[in-house]
Amino acid sequence: MDIKNIQSVSVSLAKFVKNENGDLIPIPIELQQVQKFNNDFNLFEFYAKYFFNSAYALKEVVFNTGDGLELGNVPVFLYLHAFELQLKSILYNINNEGLNTDTFGRKYGHNLNSLLSELEAKGKTWNQGLSITEKDFITKTGNDYKNKLYNYADGVDLSNPLNLDLVKVEELIHKILNNCLE
Length: 182
Description:
By secondary structure, the protein is mostly helical. The protein contains six helices and two strands.
């Protein structure tokens, strides 16, 4: 599929509720369809917003109901993917090098550390106010994310070194993005 030829997008937001068997069932909350894009539209920003909304909604379900704990790092993955897309959006807005979003995105792949390095090279001090521990954490998490170690639900296993503190990840991502957007 060639993203540059997309004329519209359909997006839905769902809430997960338990049915009588205890299974989580998605209930549509919002559906948005047919959004025309112009040639300068930044798809990274568009998709990042929806991944952040999905991550936040899933986090709220887990924290407020206790449901979804078996999803393991899926909420973390959603935040990290939104983070990747938002970093690409910022870089794309700085200089898209004449590339469409598909080609630009492939240039960086899923490499958070590469995106952060490129932002730094473009004058964005993403790590301002971060402790050494936080910088090390984001570097390790970026490497694990690039290797797709967060893409699958493995349940909650506190001995699993990939089992990340969702609140810490969310706060750190927002701190970095605030630095990049200043």
